[in-house]
TrEMBL record:
Coiled coil: none annotated. GO terms for molecular function: acyltransferase activity, transferring groups other than amino-acyl groups. Keywords: Transferase. PANTHER family: GNAT FAMILY, PUTATIVE (AFU_ORTHOLOGUE AFUA_3G00765)-RELATED-RELATED, N-ACETYLTRANSFERASE DOMAIN-CONTAINING PROTEIN. Residues 11-179 form the N-acetyltransferase domain. InterPro entries: Acyl_CoA_acyltransferase (IPR016181), GNAT_dom (IPR000182), N-acetyltransferase (IPR051531). This is GNAT family N-acetyltransferase. Signal peptide: none annotated.
Length: 185
């Protein structure tokens, strides 16, 4: 059963439920939205990610959440926290934040609004000492938002991931400490 975890001015952020895979597949799994994330996923891959997210939420009290637009009631993206689990990363287990917004809601400020709430959740109830965010160098909107939020580039944590197309293989990391967040707030 899904529950509302966070709320912003325009969004309800709710946990992932057992019947959400089809809607994510339909709304968020487009070639444009998934371009820097390895391309669209199969419905089965999304179901597997959802099962993992629901298990993490049950075990640790955090995971990715769906962004529901208050005015329309529609799913407009997802954002949340997970553990760094890429075997090529040198910082496994860190609290990783991430987000994704559907194409027809780009450049409306939803990502920044949702991620601010996610960072507050990470440094509040979740108790993370710091958060990291990963992206490819070509995902300019993503790393520009990381910088806008006060995150710092951590070249010492970058790595190559052959699971992605050549242009997206360099994974870059940004980090933010609780102290940096509180100072900027």
């Amino acid at each position: 059963m899904s529950e509302t975890v966070l709320e912003t001015g325009r969004l309800m952020l709710r946990s992932i439920g057992p019947n959400d895979a089809e809607e994510q597949f339909r709304v968020l799994n487009t070639p444009m939205v998934m371009a820097r994330l390895g391309g669209p996923k199969t419905l089965e891959q999304i179901r597997e990610k959802h099962a993992k997210a629901m298990a993490m939420y049950a075990a640790e009290g955090f995971s990715f959440l769906f962004l529901i637009e208050k005015d329309s009631g529609e799913m407009v993206g997802h954002a949340g926290i997970k553990r760094v689990d890429n075997p090529l990363a040198s910082n496994p287990g860190d609290h990783e934040i991430g987000w994704l917004i559907r194409e027809d809601r780009w450049r409306m400020g939803y990502a920044a609004e949702a991620v601010r709430a996610i960072i507050g959740w990470a440094f509040g109830p979740v108790g993370a000492p710091h958060v990291v965010a990963l992206t490819s160098e070509l995902n300019v909107p993503s790393w520009k938002l990381m910088e806008k939020l006060g995150m710092e580039r951590r070249r010492d944590l970058d790595f190559e991931d052959p699971a992605y197309p050549p242009e997206d293989r360099t994974t870059i990391l940004y980090s933010l400490t609780r102290e940096q967040w509180e100072t900027a707030a």
